[in-house]
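Page 37, top half.
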Amino acid sequence: MSIEIAIKRLDHGAGLPLPAYQSEGAAGLDLCAAVPAGEPVVLKPGERGLIPTGFALALPPTAEAQIRPRSGLALKNGVTVLNTPGTIDSDYRGEIGIILINHGDEPFSVRRGDRIAQMVIAPVSQARFFETEDLDRTERGAGGFGSSGIGQN
C-alpha cells in the first residue's frame, strides 16, 4: 500500500536527499541532518539536541509519521532519538526536527547529510470513548506491570 504525501523542501535543506527508503522491503525512510555545511552539531555524552531535517510535510488525516532511531547509530555510537517514536500529526506543517541524545562515551558529531533517524508512515484511527460503570471481564483482569510473568511457566 502506498499513499501520496506532499513534501516541502526548506531553504536550508537544499541539496540534501528527501526522505528515502534504502531497500525494497524497508519500512522506514531515512532522514538526513540539515545542519550547515562545515558546522556540525556536536553532542557530548549525555547531551541532546534538536537537529533540523530541512523539510515539512502535509500528511493526509488518515496518517501519521513516526520518528524512530537508526539501529546502527544506537549500536555503534549510543546515539538515539528521544520521545521515540515521535509522532508527526497530520495537521502539523512545520519543519520535521529530530531530538537526538548521545548515550555514548564519546562526543558525537552530526554533519550535514548524515542519516540520523528514520520515519515510518502509519495509518491513524481516532477513538470515540463512551463512559460505562463496568468493563467486560478477562482472564488477566486488572493485573498490571509484570502480571503476565516473564517465563513460560
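Page 37, bottom half:
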Amino acid sequence: MKASRVRLGDLSVGFTQALADAVREQGQRPEPLLEQFGLDTARLSAPRERLSIPRFMRLGHSAIALCDNPAMGLDMGRHSRLSQVGLAGICAAQAPDLREAARTLTRFEPLYAANYRGRSGFSEDARGAWLHFYSISPYNAYNRFVVDSVLAGWQTNLGQVVDRRIIADKVEIEFPAPDYSARYEPLFGCPVEFASGANRLRLSSETLALRNPQHCPGTWRHLLELCERELEQLTRTRSLRERVIQLLGPLLHGHEPDLEEVARSLHLPSWTLRRKLAEEGTQFRTILNDTRRDLATAYIRDTELAFGEIAYLLGFASAEAFQRAFKRWLGQTPGDYRRAQRRAAGEAQSSVASSSTSGMS
C-alpha cells in the first residue's frame, strides 16, 4: 500500500513566534515547548520552512495546557506581526490602504499557509467587505484556537498597516460560544456571533479606505511582483489531476461531489474535464477514491477526529459506509489502523528518548 500523498496542510513556522510571545506573556518559557515539536533555532531560521497543520494544532493545544489558558488563540493573534507572515506580510505592510492589505493577505495566502479544507478570501460589496476564513468543522479542543488566532491576527495585522487599532463591524464564528467567550468582544471591539455559518470579520468601507502612512509606491509594486512570481512558481507545474484533488477537500464535506460539480468549479464543461483527465491517464472516479483514501489515512493518523466526523469530511453517508470503504482500501479497520499508527509513533518517541539519554551518558 502506497503512503498517503495528500497532506492536510501546512503553514510557515513564523506563526509560532506569536504563539511563543503569548506563552511568555503567561509567565512560561516557550523554548522547551517549541523544541518538543522540533522547532529549534535552526528550523525557525530556515527560509520557507513549514509546520504541518496537525502538528501546529497539537502545539497550540500543548500551549493551552501549559498556560491553562483556553483563549491562547486570541492572545496569539494579538501578538501577531506582519513580518511573521513572510513575503506576503511584508508586501501587505507596504499596501497603500487597508483594503489592499487585506486583499494581499488573502491573495498570497498560499505563500505562507495551505490547508486542504479551503482558502481564506476577501469579498467586497457597496458597504464594506468580509474577510473570511474557511470552515474547519467539526470543532474540538485542538482546532478552535486556529480560528481564534486567524481572526484576531487579521485584526492585529491590519491595524499595523494603518498604525491604529482596527474595529470590525461584526465578527462571526462557526463554533458555539466557548467558556472564554467573554474575551472576544473586548478584543474585537464589536459584536461577536457564535454558532454562525462562517468564520469571518466584517469591515466597513470607511475602515477599508484607511491609508497606510508608511506606503511607498515603488516598494509596494516591487513586492507585489515578487509575490506574484512566487505564487506562479507554486502553481506552474500543477497537473489537472492535482487541481481536482485540491478542489475536492471543501466539496467533500457532507456529500460526494460528482464530475459535473468539479467541472463547474474549474469553469470547464464536464466533457472537457473528462477528456483532459483521460489524456493524463486517469478518470474522475479514480481521483475521488484515491483522495478519499489518502485523506482518511491522514485524518486518522494526524488528528483526534472521531470516525463519524471523518466520514462526514469525506462525504460518506454514514460512519459504517466509511469503515467498509476503509477496510476495502487498507485491509484493516480505521480503529486498527489508528492503534497501529499510535503504537509506531510511541515506539519512535521511545527510540529518540533512548538515543538522547545514551548521547548524554
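Margin note: The mean pLDDT is 91.
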